[in-house]
Amino acid sequence: MRNLRRISLITGLIAFGLAGAAAARSEMLRELENSFIQLHEELRPCVVNIDTQGSLGQLPGPQGVPEGLEDLFRFFGPLDERMNPRQRVPRTRGTGSGFIYDKDGHIVTNNHVVEGADKITVRLWDGKEYDAEVVGLDPDTDLAVIKIDAEGDLPVARLGSSSDLRVGQFAIAVGSPRGFEGSFSFGHISALGRENLAGLAAQGLRFQNLIQTDAAINLGNSGGPLVNIDGDVIGINIAIVWGANNLGFAIPIDTAKSIVPQLISGGKVTRGYLGVQIMDAREFADSLGLPDAQGAFVKQVQPGTPAERAGLQTYDVILKVNSEAIEDANDLVKTISALAPGESVSLEVWRDEKIVRVDVDLDEWSPQEATPARGRETLGIRVRPLTPELAKRLGLGDDQSGVLVAEVVPGSAAEEAGLMEGDLIIEVAREAISDTRDFHKKLEEAAIPGKSVMIRYIRAGREPDITVIKVPKTSK
Questions:
Q1: Tell me: the pLDDT tens digits for 398-444?
Q2: Do domains 272-364 and 371-470 have the same CATH topology?
């Protein structure tokens, strides 16, 4: 009997302990749940919905989605065969997100959400709508600032820091995915410092260093905030990998902190410009006799640029800028871009196995400098050169030739043929293409009015495909 009573007592204590543990666990989960509820209530008024109308060019998204539920959310492959990721329409509507930056009515969003819009409407959390005007755009970082004249005090988002983020931290995305305003998704920081995302680079995103998150973001989240568990904005949602599950990217808020004030004060960001095409020096270290693998290798000097005027040469390796060491090509771009146009800089250059000094007076960077060949259009196609660096980023071989499609004009014969930005054209009329000049020459020669031209191309790392451009009868 004593043993039975002892067993009963132990059983009772275990049951009581389990019940207590369950109660403690429930209380902990309830506190966590309440924290997320309070976080949403705090953040929701700071986040806005942005509707755009006008000639916005590209509308990525699935076919058959009702008009008005898509934005210009930047994404890249692998592409889903069921999707039409580059559907182009002459005039359309788009939906994106943003957050209130200050009480003056400035709102931060993505450049690709509002660029080219004829009309921008901002809708606040309480349903009030205001017309917005563009204050400043920066395509290189895909940041934009718009402004509304609202009644009363506006709730302002609190900016955090992205410099001390760590993989594994909680992350919350707020915005209007697919037009569903006020949506709130929870996840983690899954990676930091994402660079060299070729699909985004091909779309004009020059500066990356992106935050990767598994918080669910979709079309419409563009420009909306990524926040931490304190409700501080740590990033601005920008891109997804199409077809992947919860694989998205955000611009670090520290990048926005340096860009947004410039956009508000001057409408744009001014950056230094050198005028060289470069690659990482590590690939040429042995052949050039470099002491180490650091630096930026100059593969071409653009004519009429500061680099040419200063005497920089092909095969030079830029080791330092104003005594600061340059790690690789990306580092040189960031360093030069951070300097003011007109500033004189001193370069330490490796040339013929010796170090020489080159002084350069920088010009101002213009986005047009990145794609000098885009100005010429043939049958609705503008192309850019396939550089060795781009070929490497796109996973192509060193011997791959061709030209990259930089733009397809809406309503053109090229659009009707199904060609898209980012396609690599390798043959025109069954003849191989070597460069942009060769492309335009062969296409113009083959473009007989009323006839068709065969185009062989590669898309997103797939096997080569063939399409036909039907030349308009009025074509010359």
A1: 778 898 888 888 878 898 999 988 889 999 999 999 888 889 889 98
A2: yes
Would you call 112 a catalytic residue per the annotation? yes
**Under 8 Å CB-to-CB from 356, ≥6 apart: which residues?**
348, 349
CATH class of 272-364: mainly beta
CA distances from 75 to 38, 80, 86, 249, 422 (A): 32, 12, 10, 10, 12
List the Cα angle 423/213/390 in 5-degree steps: 25
**Residue tagged active-site, from 162, 185, 222, 412:** 222
Show the tokens assigned to 275. Answer: 């005028």
CATH architecture label of 42-270: Beta Barrel (2.40)
Q: What are phi and psi of 193, to 5 degrees?
A: 65, 35
Write the DSSP symbol of residue 118: S
Q: What are 309-350's pLDDT values in tens digits? A: 999 998 899 999 999 999 988 889 889 988 988 899 999 999
List 71, 142, 328, 363, catalytic entry: 142
161 is catalytic: no
* Residue 449: both structure tokens together: 């009015």
Catalytic site residue from 112, 280, 316, 440: 112
Respond yes or no: is residue 153 known to be catalytic: no
